[in-house]
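note to self: the first set is below, dont mix up w the second
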Amino acid sequence: MTHKLIEDKTKVAQQLTWAHWVVIYIVLVCIGTLSSAYAYGLVFYLFNGGVILAALLSLSGKAAGQRRYFLALVFFIDATLKVTLAEQSVLTAGFTSVSLLLQGVLGAWLIKRYEPSAINPNTLKKITAFFLWGALLPVCFSATAGAIYESVTSPAGNILAMFASTWLWWFINRLASLVLVAPLLLLIAHTTPEKIRRYYNQSTAEFWWSLVLACAITAVIFSEKSYPGQMLATYSYLIIPVMLLIAIRQPLIKALVIMLAVVSTSYWLDAHTAETRPDALHSLLALSVFLLITCLVVWLLGSLNWERQAALRKEKRQHQLYQILSRVNQLLARNEKAPAQLFEQLSRTILLDGGYQKVCIKPIAASDLSVSESVCAAQLNNNGESGSEAEFSIRKNGKCVAALQLWSSEPQHFDNETSIFLDELTSDIGFALEVYDKERKLEQIGAVFRHSRESIII
């Protein structure tokens, strides 16, 4: 290993604590409760499950005490709302709240156990793992527990029919809560502040117009009276072409933000147009299924777009690295200059072709190079903000004689592939220094023989 990462100035994504997540939970639950609870009832989980799973995954790298504080406060808030506002019994409120928390705990554990990378679900592989381990299996568990509880505690009747209908109710609502909310929160939580600001600054007008247009079309579609689940799923799909266009045009996070706005608008209008609570509950199932499918489509399409952009960035970086390697080797092949002049040319070449903010070649004090100070080249717009810095050893005859120091404005720039290229680059520089020393020694020997009358040629 001839290189080391000196510093990666990437600012960790938001650094949310358990208190931040509790505030997010309270705000989103209040929005869902105020907008739709009067029609659907407080048993409707618009945001609860998704916030819990996102919080547990985000807090997974922190002390276990933070997760305990979060779970305890969420249980208290959730159970209190059910007992006071929904007028549920303490046993029922406690059971539903515990099953909801266990669903989040199980999902977080399965993701960390089988696919830890799914904590940032922005590729097809991560989305598949997140949906399976974080959503589908935990929701099956919580829906089964809820269906068994309601079947046992309900008045005598057809227990099998009661179990099937209750299971379907819990499954659709809790799965929709996870898929509609958790991916967006996790993507935001794992995005650096600089990248969020860049998202905000890029295509701002287009984003706001897309948001307004999507909500307006949703308002037109769902302003019609929602019959008991019979016609809703048919005309609901009119919003899909709009969301597909948005998913293609907007980055993944922005597309999911617009999707969340569409979800909130849809539920709010559906709750307002329903005449009775039974009608609203029937309509809710069809609406949740539609929104679940639409969100999955937007999520998958946005991830494919993200992977395409990532592939293009990788291709551009590889082109820059090959260009640096080619230009430097051309420079070394025709080099006849002293190390100080060579280092100056190398610094400028690497700086311009690699797009770095600053490049320095620093000689080692104990080396035999005829260079005493670092040779640097820097961009005029170098503002020293977040990025990454790395150092690569330049070896001559097996000994480290200098170090190539690079500053990049891109966080986490020096990955394994980039480091391999730069290691090869410093190896070529070291070989050129060896050749230069050998040529100078041969010139000195030749000069001795030319100026010595007593020289003997063997």
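second set (the one i keep forgetting abt)
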Amino acid sequence: MPLIVLQAEPAPSPAGGLPFLLLFGGMWLLLSAVLAWAGGWRTLARHYPARAPGADRTIRGASASVGSPPLPVNYNNCLTVRVTEAGVEISVWPMFRFQHPPVFIPWSELEACEPGRRWLLYVVQILPRQGPPVMFRGRAARAVLAGWEAWGPRTAAA
């Protein structure tokens, strides 16, 4: 009967996963920065830095697109949208926040707030005077439109 020799595999070193973690973390930060630049979030943040108004309505897990077609950047279920009597604040969840500081866009800085439908979804697109368009979906879209209407778009022309 042949003799079978088993050899034990060496135990992985504790630092074996460190290069992967560093590479993954670096790629995560790079991708986040590229998306902030490509969609125009950085432009919005430069023109509309966040302030701390009291929120009339807060929607967590909101979705929106930032930027112009054909390639806007989609933020699906990772935004917090706060609608106030002065405007709308948009922030990205902390794990995606690199290069995405919170943004506060006053109602007076909007050229338009347009409701509509994209496929089967209810959407509202806002057009800031400076920066890319932002298209909200679902509950956030309804809250943004209600805030805009409560503010009164007629005031923007005055």
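remember for set 2: The CA atoms of residues 88 and 105 lie 5 Å apart.
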